[in-house]
Amino acid sequence: MLQLRLSRFSRWMLPICIAFLWGSVAGAQPRPQRVVSLNLCTDEMLLTLADRDQIASLSFLIKDPSISFMAEQAQGVPVNDGRAETILFSGPELVLSGTYGQQGQAALLKAQGLKVLTLGPWTSLNEGQEQIRTMARALGHPERGEALIARIDTALQRTKNIVQGKPSILVYDRGSWVSSTDSPMNELLIHMGFKPHQEALGLPHGGMARLETIVTTPPDFLLLDDDSDKAVDNGTALFVHPALVNAVPLERRLVVPRKLTICGGPSTPEAIDALAAEIRAKVR
Predict the structure, then answer these.
(1) What distance in Å separates the CA atoms of residue 44 and residue 49, rounded to the nearest whole number?
(2) pLDDT-based confidence at residue 10 (cuts at 50, 70, 90)
(3) What is the spatial distance between Cα 88 and Cα 56, in angstroms, rounded to a whole number?
(4) Which of 83, 85, 94, 163 counts the most CB atoms within 10 A of its CB?
(5) Kind of pairing, strands 116-119 and 18-20?
(6) Residue 14 has pLDDT above 90, yes or no
(7) Which candidate, 51, 15, 55, 25, places its Cα nearest to that of 38?
(8) End of a domain among 51, 85, 120?
(9) What is the pLDDT of residues 184-235, one digit of tens each?
(10) How far apart are alpha carbons 250 and 214 in whole angstroms?
(11) Domain extent for 223
């Protein structure tokens, strides 16, 4: 799920790294006019915070509606193939990169004198908000960053302690992955009134949770992606395993669309509201 969740895409959901590869940013910067994004999460931030004519290209992932929160908004915007050579010859004034699988491209582009801003997955909601400010300033639109942060804060305020009795919950990802208790998604769940179940499984820092362990020590609730109701590969087959269904039945599974939780940023207010809706429907 999220960068917020720190899923395998982001680990909402793996440390944040905000690395300026040029100068310091104390305030708003001159607005770059050709900005290239190599990462789905920076794609969504760029679409939200920049003027359309500042965007030179986005990553091809932005067009995939199964994982992209802003696939519709990205219609008509050019996409790139992610190759450093292609990006270099497109003449960008600023390149936005992630920290997973793109270090080589970022290093090569920096070595060629390009300005590169590398943004990693959120490790907390506060750090995520600082990341929004960082990008908004780099794009020359600090007020848009503050507006997005205000939307996140408002969503947090209306969902504070909406869960009573501190039931346990486990954020369970495909491939048996369990996020750490201090991930942004678990921070959000605690904010809402849940108790993370990782410590009961001996995994406070996250890791692989064996099916047998969850079945013998089940949480009150599971938090899953929206494709968890079908076995499409080995990584998702365990979600429909009879033993797990018996231990944590469907009515105690909270489901949030994956495209809301892969990345922290523009989708975060909607992710918070979607989770709150599931809680109101299923948590008694």
Answers:
(1) 9
(2) very low
(3) 12
(4) 94
(5) antiparallel
(6) no
(7) 55
(8) 120
(9) 999 999 999 999 999 999 999 999 999 999 999 999 999 999 877 766 666 6
(10) 15
(11) 168-282
Assigned domain for 3 exists = no
pLDDT at 100: 81
Mark whether 173 and 277 lie in a shared domain. yes
pLDDT digits (tens, 9 = 90+) for 45-91: 999 999 999 999 999 999 999 999 999 999 999 999 999 999 999 99
Is 160 inside any structural domain? no
Judge contact between 260 and 69, C-beta under 8 A.
yes
Q: Quick check: is 267 in a domain? A: yes
Burial class from Cβ neighbours inside 10 Å (0-12, 13-18, 19+) for residue 235 reads: middle
Predicted confidence at residue 13, as pLDDT, reads 38
Length in residues, the chain: 284
Own/partner long-range contacts of 46-49 (Cβ < 8 Å, ≥24 apart): 46/96, 46/135, 46/139, 47/73, 47/74, 47/77, 47/266, 48/144, 48/148, 48/265, 48/266, 49/132, 49/135, 49/136, 49/139, 49/141, 49/144, 49/145, 49/148
**pLDDT at position 233:** 67
Residue from 264, 197, 259, 281 nearest 64 by CA:
259
Query: Tell me, what CATH number does 63's domain have?
Result: 3.40.50.1980
Regarding whether 274 and 177 lie in a shared domain, the answer is yes
Give yes or no: residues 108 and 187 share one domain: no
Same domain (yes/no): 104, 22: yes
Question: Which element (helix H / strand E) includes 173?
Answer: strand 168-173
- Give pLDDT tens digits for 108-151: 999 999 999 999 999 999 999 999 999 999 999 999 999 999 99
Quick one: tokens of 64?
């995939």
